[in-house]
Amino acid sequence: MASNGELPSKQKAAQFHPSDQSVHINEIPVPSIKPDELLVKVRAASLCHSDLMLFEPNDQGLNLGSGDPFTMGHEGCGTILEVGSEAKGFKKGDRVGWLPIIDCCFECDACQVHNLYCETGQSKVQGMTVDGYFQTYCAVKWQNAAIIPDGMDLDSSAPIFCAGATAFNSVEATRAELKGDPKDVYVAVIGCGGLGHLGIQYLKAYGYKVIGIDLSPEALEEAKAQGADYLFNPKEDKDYVKKILEITGKGCHAAINFTNSVPAYSSTPDVIRYNGVLMVTGIPQKPISFSGMDVSMLRIRVRGANNGRTDQLRNCLEFSHKHGIKPHVTQFKLEDFQKMLDTMHAGQHKGRMGVLFE
Ligand SMILES: [Zn+2]
Ligand SMILES: [Zn+2]
């Protein structure tokens, strides 16, 4: 903030330029808020694997990155500076995080499931089509925001608001399908990166036996640090399916796939027991396919989960605080955004990477 306590008029932002598919650190205006918005001073924003979709072709019906440059980032947290006149339940100084869909109605049947599919057809994703959070000041719809519990660390909380919420909702959706004492129930976590390292923490908080599967040694190290009971790298261990069947008896009771890899999805049923749960969470750029026989004969129960709604986000925050769930974040400066992006492209990171603002 400027020395007189007033907001500055300009700020730096990491912006995606659709014209050449590159990122620039630009100087842009500090936004002024609408009546249904909160002005937040961002403390931390983090990079999600889906941010890489901006740089790749996709056929999942997402229209990403056309038109003017916009600020990247859809995972952030910070402190409220101004509260719009229509916003309910927030005050200046509250520490908040939030979900990224705007221009939806928050009211229709579709919004009750996921507001990306709002019946108005107007939904936009901050950080994907309009300005996101790799900037110091941002406008947030009050309906998307949730207060961060007292005592929860703000600096490391940004990943909760996409990766954490998604991992939590996946674990909750999986749990709803499972019976028995968690200590006797095996859940495979496929993809132990940003989402997976949090998914493992949520599963362990419930007491499940966790089998971490990833092609990256760094991700498996992180999975181990977060308490995974068994670790497998299918690239290095051709017998991993056989070994998992030996450990679990009949196969895992559930497998949560956090990857964006079609081959990883194709091989997921191999580690699942009869009538086990296959939780579709990560979104590959290409369609995934399962055997109709496997689905119809209930060999696998295919379910889905995502970052969800604000009421689910509040549950996630409460649970995360109570159980000491903590994202592992490597912090970068905004100026080093490209370096952070390159590291994610190369898959050489553990947990999450993000920018910590002043
Ligand atoms: Zn995300
Ligand atoms: Zn709606």
From TrEMBL:
<dbReference type="Pfam" id="PF08240">
    <property type="entry name" value="ADH_N"/>
</dbReference>
<dbReference type="InterPro" id="IPR002328">
    <property type="entry name" value="ADH_Zn_CS"/>
</dbReference>
<dbReference type="Pfam" id="PF00107">
    <property type="entry name" value="ADH_zinc_N"/>
</dbReference>
<keyword id="KW-0560">Oxidoreductase</keyword>
<comment type="similarity">
    <text>Belongs to the zinc-containing alcohol dehydrogenase family.</text>
</comment>
<dbReference type="InterPro" id="IPR036291">
    <property type="entry name" value="NAD(P)-bd_dom_sf"/>
</dbReference>
<feature type="region of interest" description="Disordered">
    <location>
        <begin position="1"/>
        <end position="21"/>
    </location>
</feature>
<dbReference type="InterPro" id="IPR020843">
    <property type="entry name" value="ER"/>
</dbReference>
<feature type="domain" description="Enoyl reductase (ER)">
    <location>
        <begin position="19"/>
        <end position="355"/>
    </location>
</feature>
<dbReference type="InterPro" id="IPR011032">
    <property type="entry name" value="GroES-like_sf"/>
</dbReference>
<keyword id="KW-0862">Zinc</keyword>
<dbReference type="InterPro" id="IPR013154">
    <property type="entry name" value="ADH-like_N"/>
</dbReference>
<keyword id="KW-0479">Metal-binding</keyword>
<dbReference type="GO" id="GO:0016491">
    <property type="term" value="F:oxidoreductase activity"/>
</dbReference>
<dbReference type="GO" id="GO:0008270">
    <property type="term" value="F:zinc ion binding"/>
</dbReference>
<dbReference type="InterPro" id="IPR013149">
    <property type="entry name" value="ADH-like_C"/>
</dbReference>
<protein>
    <recommendedName>
        <fullName>Enoyl reductase (ER) domain-containing protein</fullName>
    </recommendedName>
</protein>
